[in-house]
Amino acid sequence: MCGFLGSDVPYNAFIALLPNVLKLDAADGASATWIESNFRFAARELAGGRAHSPAILAKLAELLFMEAVRRYFTSQPPLDSSLAAGMRDPIVGRALGLIHGQIARRWTTEDLAREIALSRSAFAERFTRVIGEPPMRYIVRQRLEQASAQLKESADSIARIAYDVGYKSEVAFNRAFRREYGVPPAAWRRGHAARQV
């Protein structure tokens, strides 16, 4: 079965935080039976070619999507209070979506302000007030958090991870990582692996 779910809303901050591809195991979790029965129902409706099926299937797709999103967010670390506050603010929420959607882009405060259609100073002041830190500091912290997750979960090289999170040089990445975590990324990875044994 194949389909799509669209929206006329030009921007949704929570959807902007979703990965480009969201893959969940339908058999896993408390809603597994519900998901399976809904897919079976949808298949029967499609096979039967009933006239009312498109409207029913559209609502069913929305419910399944909402469940997938709910399961995705419950599998992630909880949103900290500043990020939750930022998501409620339409300006900052849009900026957060841009940042998280393109974490490796060489953002500047001016670039973000331009995308949001605010002056640099108005955007920087609002972002700092809502999130509790300036936009560029927030971006560095998010890049390093993503890098630390990749160091834990993958065998990718340090250079690959540095590039994936937006650093053009392994040296610059090592310096930023050491400043944030107190040790270089390779030592941090070894220490984390030793704690898991």
From TrEMBL:
It comes from the Bacteria. PROSITE patterns: HTH_ARAC_FAMILY_1, HTH_ARAC_FAMILY_2. Residues 93-191 form the HTH araC/xylS-type domain. Keywords: DNA-binding, Transcription, Transcription regulation. SUPFAM superfamilies: Homeodomain-like. SMART domains: HTH_ARAC. Coiled coil: none annotated. This is HTH araC/xylS-type domain-containing protein. It comes from Mesorhizobium ventifaucium.
